Amino acid sequence: MLEVSNLDVFYGKSQALRDASLKINEGEIVALVGTNGAGKTTLLNTLSGLLRPTSGSVEFLGNRIDRLAPHKIMKLGICQIPEGRKLFSDMTVGENLEMGAYNSEAWKRRRETLEQVYQIFPVLKERRKQSAKKLSGGERQMVAIGRGLMSNPRLCMFDEPSYGLAPNLFSEVLEVIKRLREQGITIFLVEQNVRQTLQTADRAYVLENGHIVLEGKGKDLLQDDLVKKAYLGL
Fold first, then answer.
1. What is the pTM of this model?
2. What is the mean pLDDT of each run of 10 residues along the chain (234 residues)?
3. What is the 3-state secondary structure (H, E, C) of the chain?
């Protein structure tokens, strides 16, 4: 579904990604783990069209997308759930969700999709007229995920969904991610919470200093000596 080949990305003279390559097959949950500053968000922003690579390529469903504008990439079926949720705090829950139906096709289907979001997160229907700034951290994460789903994505990219959440709430988010996969949405999960993420993912990549240093099945990487030492404290 998605193929990233030899990406180099710079911020000015500082290189953030170096020869990064990975692939995501349709129907998978693929994880990217690494420490703060490793380049995880840079990679997501490049896939979303917010950053342009200096070299390398990104293909989605056989079409090259690394030179497309973000709204065109979203229309193809890629959504990004940003770190920190990035909600419109003074808007209601319902208004925030509708903002996700940005492209014309998604807007036509917004009522149907909204009901699907409310089935996944019933509490959001109860809170639909409430200001987003009055929500708890877990509820704000639900709105962020729901807003992404309003674009009817085929590939949903999560940037640090554990951010600001208690461990039990992150576990609930992972259960939602599994349900989304069962509904036909492919998942790219970018996280610092290595143990739970690798237990959930079908396959995973480890990013260090902008470069992919390891890849494999999620549960196999949990047994890797580098992962144990660098990320699990074992």
1. 0.92
2. 97 95 97 92 96 97 96 94 84 90 88 92 92 86 91 94 84 91 95 91 95 95 90 72
3. CEEEEEEEEEECCEEEEEEEEEEECCCCEEEEECCCCCCHHHHHHHHCCCCCCCEEEEEECCEECCCCCHHHHHHHCEEEECCCCCCCCCCEHHHHHHHCCCCHHHHHCHHHHHHHHHHHCHHHHHCCCCEHHHCCHHHHHHHHHHHHHCCCCCEEEEECCCCCCCHHHHHHHHHHHHHHHHCCCEEEEEECCHHHHHHHCCEEEEEECCEEEEEEEHHHHCCCHHHHHHCCCC
